[in-house]
Amino acid sequence: MDRYFRLIDKLKRERTLSAAEWTDLIEHRSQELSEYLFSLAREEQGLYYGKDIFVRGLIEFSNYCRNDCLYCGIRRSNRNARRYRLDEDEILSCCHEGYALGLRTFVLQSGEDASFTRDRLTNLVRRIRSSFPDCAITLSVGEWDEASFKAFFDAGADRYLLRHETYNPEHYAMLHPPSLCAQNRRQCLWSLKKIGYQTGTGFMVGAPGQTPEYLAEDMLFLKELNPQMVGIGPFIPHRDTPFKNETAGTLELTLFLLGCIRLMLPKVLLPATTALGTIHPEGRELGILAGANVVMPNLSPQGVRKDYLLYDNKICTGEESAQCRDSLERKINAIGYRTVTDRGDSLNL
Ligand code: SAH
Predict the structure, then answer these.
(1) First-to-final CA distance of the chain
(2) Mutation test of ligand 1: which of 70, 71, 243 has the most ligand atoms closer than 8 Å to its C-beta?
(3) Nearest atom in ligand 1 to 203's CA
(4) Is 269 in contact with 55 (CB distance < 8 Å)?
């Protein structure tokens, strides 16, 4: 018992554990241990970020995707997905709406939609950059070659989110079609860092086939990459995917890993994700109390929001952007934190 409390102390002191220690800790976690971990994680969070929770506006601008990831509801072979893409003006008007709500970071996310070529995306970023010089632009548009990442950066994108999904190559191959591989995904992340992006990575918790050993590899990779942001959320099955009968990741393990990541990378930006809010009504608040410090309310137009379904039962698909933001703010205030609406750059630079 004491041994695992000591491992948490060691994690706080040395900011890392060995693969064997990570596996051991993850396998032997308990409620008491989690409570101890979360209190230390909150302390670290308070040291660097006080009670501030950063709010990012998420714009899901296209659900067309050339990829066929086995877990994802917008995978190419899902014939039931109603496909949409927003045009430039529609995306800009989402940004205007977000700006009026006080948001100063726009996260543009989509499937890998071939109609958004390098040039189109570059132009889009340039337009947003010139209309909103005081805002951060975050892209989450999948894998590209380094020259394209550089073109988006030069056009004014500041940040890039690309989850590594899972470090282990065999596990990666279980979750993805043969056209995708773990090594290429990670190569993209090193390129993004080299170019100068504030880079975010992460993984799903409880993805089919995931083991404590694989999670240990994920934690070591996070340590090695030292990203500015880490997005983790529970895997949730989608009814039109090969994983429809798999069980979802748990709140409990997701919270535990959030706490571990806060101790390992104390200055990192760590979202309490929509997926976490989907598996439990207080998921995002509990995420914050375990060490998370970012939320990403949806700014996508209401007409398309219910079509960007990566998994079943996604929350906030019926609300307006303003409602979405307000209800989140109330929940955050209720647990003693406050939302801040500046750019909220990472301190982990
Ligand atoms: N095309 C972009 C954006 C992908 S969607 C890219 O490749 O990065 C963003 C994230 O949602 C993915 O990285 C994945 O980790 C997560 N996701 C996809 N399907 C999911 C599911 N069924 N349950 C939980 N998270 C999921």
Answers:
(1) 36
(2) 71
(3) 15
(4) no
Nearest ligand 1 atom to the CA of 202 is: 15
What does DSSP assign to residue 74? T
Closest approach atom of ligand 1 to CA 165: 15
φ, ψ of residue 160 to 5 degrees: the values are -145, 130
- Which residues approach ligand 1 with their CB closer than 6 A? 71-72, 109, 111-112, 140, 142, 162-163, 165, 204, 233, 235-236, 238, 275, 310-311
Query: Which residue lies with its CA nearest to atom 2 of ligand 1?
Result: 142
Residue 140, strand partner residues: 109
Per residue, the 3-state secondary structure of 80-106, as one string, reads CCCCCECCHHHHHHHHHHHHHCCCCEE
d(CA 72, ligand 1 centre) in Å: 6
Closest atom, ligand 1, to C-alpha of 236 = 23
Contact yes or no for 317/306 (Cβ under 8 A):
yes
CATH H-level, domain 2-340: superfamily: Aldolase class I (3.20.20.70)
Measured at the CA of 55, the angle between CA 49 and CA 57, to 5 degrees, comes to: 155
Which pTM was predicted? 0.98
C-alpha 13 to ligand 1 mean position (Å): 33
Nearest to 175 by CA among 68, 271, 98, 299: 68
How many whole angstroms from 74 Cα to the centroid of ligand 1?
Answer: 9
- The tens place of each residue's pLDDT in the chain, 349 residues long, gives 699 999 999 999 999 999 999 999 999 999 999 999 999 999 999 999 999 999 999 999 999 999 999 999 999 999 999 999 999 999 999 999 999 999 999 999 999 999 999 999 999 999 999 999 999 999 999 999 999 999 999 999 999 999 999 999 999 999 999 999 999 999 999 999 999 999 999 999 999 999 999 999 999 999 999 999 999 999 999 999 999 999 999 999 999 999 999 999 999 999 999 999 999 999 999 999 999 999 999 999 999 999 999 999 999 999 888 888 899 999 999 999 999 988 999 887 7
